[in-house]
Predict the 3D structure of the following.
Amino acid sequence: MRRIILATLLLWGITAPALFPLDTLRIDATLDTVFHQVTGSVAYKIPVEPAAGTIEFQLFPNVYSSDSTPYMRRSPFALQNKMGDSQYGKMTIDSVFFNGLNVSANFKVEYTRGTVALPQGLKVAGGDLKIFFKTAIPSQGDRLTYRGKEYLLDGWYPSPARLLPDKSWYNPYYGGFSELVGDYFHFDVSLKLPTGYVVAAAAPPALDSLAESGQIVKFFFGPAHDFPLVVSPFLKTDSLDCGKTRLRLFYHSNEVAALGEIRDVALKTLEYMNNKVGPYQYEYLNVALIDFSMAGGIELPGLVILHSGTANLVFGRMFRAVIVHEIVHQWFYGMIGSDQVESPWMDEAVSEFFTSEVLEEYWGGESNMLDFAGFKLSDRNLRRFAAHFGGDGIKIAQPSYQFLNDLDYFSGNYSRGGLAIETVDNLMGDSLSGKFWREYYRRYLFQHPSEKDFLNLIGEIAGARLTELLREILHGDYNYDISLTNLRNERLDSLTVRIELICRKTGGLAFPIDYWVFLSNGDTLRGIWDGTIGAEAIEIISDSFATGAVLDPEQKFAVDRDWLNNSLLLSGSSRPAMRLASGLLFLLESVLSAVAGL
Amino acid sequence: MNDLRKAFGKLIAVRGLWLNLYLVKALTATAFILPLYLVTDSYLSSSLYSRRLLGDWDISVLIELFGGRIDLVPVFLLFGLAAAIIFLLIMQFLNGGIYYLAVSGKISPVQWSDFWSECGTNFKAHLKITAMMIVVYLVLLIAGLIFVNMVGMAGGKLTGKSAMYMAGAKALILMVIMTTASTFSDAVRAAITARPGVSFRESLRTGSDFFRPRVLRLAGFYFLTYLPFLATWILVEILALWTVGFLGNVVGIFLEFILFQICSFSRTGQKLWYLFFIGGRFREAVPGRFLPQQAELGI
């Protein structure tokens, strides 16, 4: 059945150039482990006549070409390069041929953007482009790097720029925090490398043969928008079936202890995402453990990179969250593409949201991040904490290169973004939520939906008001606070009481908000505040006094910055503060004992 | 072991001092926690969400409390730092009397006039040792962290419980290093007490001469006195969780508070116990001014 689906998709891809403009990318390359470089060629067909009469492609390794590139200026690796005897990365184009004609003279490079102007009158559609390249692999990089004999190769070949439906080229601007963007292809990759190396890729090699002074491995994989590799002579492999997917693990001998956790988490994440969103489309899910990239985890199509050194965080539970997050990316980034440069929230924020969903489903909602000596913390609450650290004026939906530092990027894009998606998902409710994600998958599988597509689909499924709410959160200043500022009882006569509560909100959120009023007779009155204006007094006539009230009782508005002020209890209790003070007193006494001995 | 038993007997004999020292610690801490209580109570008392704190140490409440008021965190950390500095100064004053009792062994009954006199006489010397030890602790902490991280290179690949055990092992190594330094500090303080008139350098030498050949034994006995406290601490944590989880009301919180204070009280006792032990050992090795009067035999 899977083969039929893939064959159908392939056929659809070939016959629908607007969706799959470039169907097969042939890469023939050699990895030089002495000089740490890759040389080779990339060949593909240009399916339609580009609007500008030029052909564009991406030279991602140039982001590592100096400490002062837009990418490296925001990167911690720049400092390391200055400190050590490091090799910068660079992609050199030796020659470009179009239909056998050498057009290298018309080739220009501007940072990561390669452009070839073709002679006038030349028919471009259907023509064959072949690019000969040489990539110097940087010693300090996040997704293209090496250490000793081990390599992480992402963006290692000249990748075609995206051809948009209006036939213009989209060549992303790789500033700080930008991830690779590409169209969907079928990859036909041949890599020559020294013998004894193991290659972790999205699929096992279709052919692994010995050649003169080395081995040649061939891969067929797709549809995917990238084809990265981990190459190392030290990798060991293991595999097991996770339902219809075969999980392949690549690890070092000292990382064996992590494998059980990875298997368990992968199995559960695949199960959840297959059910909630849609089936994982590839035959293999590959996880490679490395410890020489500074990123905690990197999502790549069909391949997840995990930095094994992060395992100790929060007694290993953070590692679990990283595994879930990167596997969720197989859907939101991998199979449902997006523009990671211009709209990074569309993969990161959505993946953060689903990370919490998976963790809650299998490890509970209260303490999936920490459960030790009575201390409890969930991934969701950790996200609420991290959301406070982003600077003012940061928008969730801003392009990756506009984030100025790690705190802004991770807080704004991941944490606030994740809370934004959680808010919308909560407000849709279980049935519409399931419908939305399944439809999003069905409609945009192996495509690149835009923010507009995402918002429109929410509108279709859950109404225009929710679309407006999400648009506002994505582009707003993230200073939302819902609060209940007054609760009053007034006896009107012996039988009736007028209850007044004042609801307030700052920062927008024009959306109905639930409230509950607790009565002295034990009943709970439930109502909805329309939420169209910033503050409103709600009057209720009742036969009992109110003892307390709460706005947004189910905490659907995850973007609300303070959940403490959402409720008012008339008979306030000092017990929480007393317990907190008691605990902190003991903590301070322990510190004093440690400092002064007694 | 016999010495430990004797030292424990002395601890029981000065239980009034033990209680008072604990109270100094508890009152200093309370003075700084009280403002925090008043501030947090105004946010937590009327909120339904804060009730989560009544069952567990639910960190989400603290996130809501401090997340939006991140400026309060450094204020409270400064409060803690101020409390630590004030308590440190008070203890340098009291150390004169405490070490006098420990090294001289004159505890039944305690001569309080001698105690206070010793407090005043050796205040500067104890302050000097503290200043020196702060530097020593910092250097050892940095070196210790580098060491445990080298040890933990393999631990970097661990996950789950294995990672937790490795973290525990690292903490234990650090604790051994810092405790050994602390026993050295005790030896120097004992030297100052036994021979108050000599120079600081001479006291350091005397303390070192006592410390070096006995380092393992001293650290070992420290851990022996620490074990009952550790057991108390673990028991208190379990009982406190059970008490609050089961009762969840003011009674539960009060019982938890009492349990915490029992633990804090036992920590004061543990150190006093150890001081009486090391004081006795020191007097045997370096009697100084506590040399027993020689009886002249009129032969």
About this structure: Chain A touches chain B through 68 residues (CB under 8 Å). Residues 236 and 251 of chain A are 5 Å apart (CA to CA).
